[in-house]
Amino acid sequence: MPTRRALIAATPLLVTGCSGGENPYDRAVRDLWRLPDLGGGGAPMMALIHAATLAANGHNTQPWRFRVEARAIEILPDFSRRTPVVDPDDHHLFVSLGCATETLLQAGLGYGWAGEPEMLPGGGVRIALSSAKPRPDALFQAIPRRASTRTAYDGRPVDAATLRRLEAAVGREVGLRLVLDPDQRDHLTDMIVAGNSAQIADPAFMRELTDWIRFDAAEALARRDGLFAAASGNLTTPRWLGERLLPLVMTKKGEAERVTRWMRSSAGAAIFTGPSETPDGWIAVGRAFTRFALTATAAGLKLAFLNQPVEDLPTRRRMAAWMGEPGKRPDLVVRFGYGPDLPRSLRRSAQAVLLA
Questions:
Q1: CB proximity list for 175: less than 8 A, separation 6 or greater
Q2: Rounded to two decimals, what is the model's pTM?
Q3: Which of 16, 128, 165, 347 is most buried, judged by most C-beta within 10 A?
Q4: In this structure, what DSSP letter does residue 79 have?
């Protein structure tokens, strides 16, 4: 039986998509991650839905469907794309709907359509649209540039003016705690590691995670969802090999070291706490995070989720107590800083998520 070190050393020989020129995956990324120029005329329904599909979402499951009316768009939960192990109460699913909602609203403003969101029974959102003066501002321009960048950053601090803009973007409905002090960051890192270790020890979690990993470009291109290995800075391999390598390389010790390295290289972290433990409250968290993320992207920052401590119940309770809010639920943990670009993930097309 080869050692783990030997397997890892051999893996680069099996990396896919290394030939020169633009390959089909890169071409699909280029076509996807842009906002179309409409050239005027009509409410841009499909352009708005396209923008919304670029929103952040858990495991890149894209748990949404869209219904178009004459002057409105409904964003509805797609429960067929649940992740019941990591997200048993659909918290992340509804946060993802909030991310899609805010992204659509910001895209609408850029194209010249103001949106008025209304919560629907069952956790959906209906957005009534009315014409307005186009405002293609920095947040609009940031929509196709926002990404979850899962790698080490360069450690540079963020200036006070940018931090104030990030705080202002969140608003008052959702709580935000910026973790900038090194000692506080170390405490938060310990909780991220604890939550991550609990997940790695859970066979059901690992099975669900493996199902949503897209190990090579061909698989990612065929599915257009899930966690593309290269988008996390990892090697790409055929699924048959990736499934065998994952338990060998994704260990408690290795992940603890990686999380620690990521956190120490970041400028800080942000913890979001919603107004209620309900779908409406979680949608509000997704909307607030999206404004934060677009503001950060416009300022040249990278972001990545480290939600392990809010996904593991004992660690989440410990985090709430550490924050001095034992009766509240921390919803999201996000690190931010200055870092490199990584390969982008794909999304399903607007047509694929449209309800008749």
A1: 272, 273, 274, 325, 328
A2: 0.93
A3: 347
A4: G
